[in-house]
Amino acid sequence: xxxxxxxxxxxxxxxxxxxxxxxxxxxxxxxxxxxxxxxxxxxxxxxxxxxxxxxxxxxxxxxxxxxxxxxxxxxxxxxxxxxxxxxxxxxxxxxxxxxxxxxxxxxxxxxxxxxxxxxxxxxxxxxxxxxxxxxxxxxxxxxxxxxxxxxxxxxxxxxxxxxxxxxxxxxxxxxxxxxxxxxxxxxxxxxxxxxxxxxxxxxxxxxxxxxxxxxxxxxxxxxxxxxxxxxxxxxxxxxxxxxxxxxxxxxxxx
Length: 254
Hints:
The protein is of the alpha/beta class.
């Protein structure tokens, strides 16, 4: 199994990507797991969803190129990109609070997953970045559009266009990271959630709907679709295929 889902007694759902051997890269199984977790959030006894990765090295390294390298054309790429963009949009528009618990490095699609959550908690010393530009593609799961919605223009453009892996301190200053911790990641998350989980669920949902209505009015879903289609075109480019081939070759030599 590539993931685990646990209902915690404090009243939240914990989703963990359990692929530490791939630095918790996302494959189709993880996509299915996220869909399942989002569905389970209909449980009225659950007030929040927390997403994290296995181990202490990586939160999520993005899409698993060992799996997705088989996607060659823009049509093939679009199928995968669109599927994940729908998952992230569903995650973003959940009527309950969501937390990305960055227990380790987050790169590429891992940052897109984190961006779709309401809050991002990062362990001191971790690094993260939207590195897609170095792969000759853009964000393709909706993460760029989501980032533009949540952060001011200048810092979000810089994070996307430079395509660099940044320190947690830099990301905190840019507004991507909301809180940093140094102790056990679950304990830190529960401390962060402590007051929120005491509030009536209807109140939490009513407040979350304020943002969801704003995103609907701003046609976020339609804008994400344009991002997905643009990325699918870049995906079939020679530059991107060359990057993927080099990635696979280096991995096979290890």
